[in-house]
Structure formats: structure tokens, C-alpha cells
């Protein structure tokens, strides 16, 4: 089983990464990591889009430009680690999605204009931690789940979260251990 770990955490002591690693330790397979803070995302300006459109129209996804999308499309399981930032997630994760949403590689359109997924993965885990309560899952996990279901064809998405970690007096270890317990109870693919 090929596991793709999409890591958008940035802090050395990241609690989100610690939970994601707990999950990865339970999953059986080869792990490839996309460490987003170490990736150089091209600027998605007009010249980039036209280069990409030309390659897609020619059905040529062999270029370096498509390497992240090829890696994503081939994975059996996706694990995303994303701290809760500004009600959603770090911008690097959005930049990553802009790179992997590739027509003819990770998704296609049917004749009547509906997107269909071309990714091999059947399962996506989204791991997040938040300083306060996650008031709405809509902008973080909910958005990623919508992308997964609509574009990538990954219907089975699971959220793992620990929230209220930065509230004064919070028992951070207890909150993280509760999330670890939740991970231990998951039925894994
Ligand atoms: C740039 C930034 C934005 C944040 N925005 C929010 C937020 O909107 N809501 C919230 O509850 N916590 C917010 N936090 C706190 C983080 O969600 C929290 O500290 C989280 O556990 C950090 O994850 P990490 O330990 O993996 O780095 C923010 C932190 C940073 C650095």
C-alpha cells in the first residue's frame, strides 16, 4: 500500500504532525512525504496556466510540473496534516491543491460536464489541531472533503482533530492523548 503524507505543518513541535505520525505508525505500507514548506510552488500566473493547459490538451503529464499530481494520483491512502489556521489551513495546502488538480491526471469531466476522480486512493485522513474550538469544519476539513469527493473520487474521508489546545489552562497532553485514542480505535484500510 502506498501512503502519501501531505504535511502542511511548519512548527518543529507541531502537535498536528505528532497526531499524523501516530496515525502513520498504525498504517501498513510505504510512506511518501510531501513536505509542503520545503516545496517550491510555481506562481500560478497566466503563463503557468497556459503552459499547463497546453500540456493537458496534448495529454502529456510527464513534466516536472505534474510530479505532485502524479504522486497524489498513484497513492492508495492520503494523510493530510493541516494545523487550523485562520479558520482553515496554511496557504501552502491551497497551493498544493492548485498543483494537483490536473485535468486528465487527478480528475476528468464527463461528457455532461460532471467532474470524475482519476485517483487510485479510496481513503483520505485529515488531521488537524486548533488553538480554540473549530467552530465550523466548513472551511478546513469540509473544503478538503468536498475536493476529495468532487474531484479526486475519494469518498471515504475521516477527520481527526484536537481542539482548544491554546486555551489558558488547557491540559494539552490529555487533549492530544484523547485524539491518539481516537486514532487507535479507527478501522484502518
Ligand atoms: C497563522 C496561525 C493562524 C491560526 N489561526 C487559528 C484560528 O483561526 N483558530 C484557532 O482556533 N487557532 C488558530 N491558530 C492556533 C493553531 O491552530 C494551534 O496552535 C495549532 O495547534 C497549531 O498546530 P501545530 O502545533 O501543528 O503547529 C493559529 C495559529 C497560527 C500560527
Ligands bound here?
Answer: flavin mononucleotide
Number of helices, where a helix is a run of at least 4 consecutive DSSP H or I residues: 6
In what range is the share of β-strand residues? Answer: 15-25%
* CATH class category: Alpha Beta
Mean pLDDT: 97
Instruction: Give the biggest sheet.
Output: 5 strands, parallel
Strand line-up across the major sheet: 2-1-3-6-7
CATH superfamily: Flavodoxin domain
Instruction: Decide which structural class fits the backbone.
Output: alpha/beta
What is the CATH fold-level name? Rossmann fold
Report helical residue fraction.
Answer: 25-40%
- Indicate the overall shape: globular
How many structural domains does the protein architecture include?
1
Which residues form runs of ≥5 with pLDDT under 50? none
SSE pattern, N- to C-terminal = EHEHHEHEEEHEH
- N-C termini distance: 9 Å
Rg over CA atoms, rounded to whole Å, is 17 Å
Report the strand count: 7
What's the architecture in CATH terms?
3-Layer(aba) Sandwich
What is this structure, in a nutshell?
By secondary structure, this protein is of the alpha/beta class. The chain is 35% helix and 20% strand.
Question: Can you offer a commentary on this structure?
Answer:
By secondary structure, this protein is an alpha/beta fold. The protein has one domain (2-184): 3-Layer(aba) Sandwich (Rossmann fold). Helix content is 35%, strand content 20%. It is built from 6 helices and 7 strands. The strands form 2 sheets. It has a 5-stranded parallel β-sheet, with helices on both faces. Strands 4-5 form a two-stranded antiparallel sheet. Helix 1 packs parallel to helix 6. The radius of gyration is 17 Å and the shape is globular. The mean pLDDT is 97. The structure holds flavin mononucleotide. Flavin mononucleotide (FMN) binds at residues 9, 11, 14-17, 83-87, 129-132, 165-166.
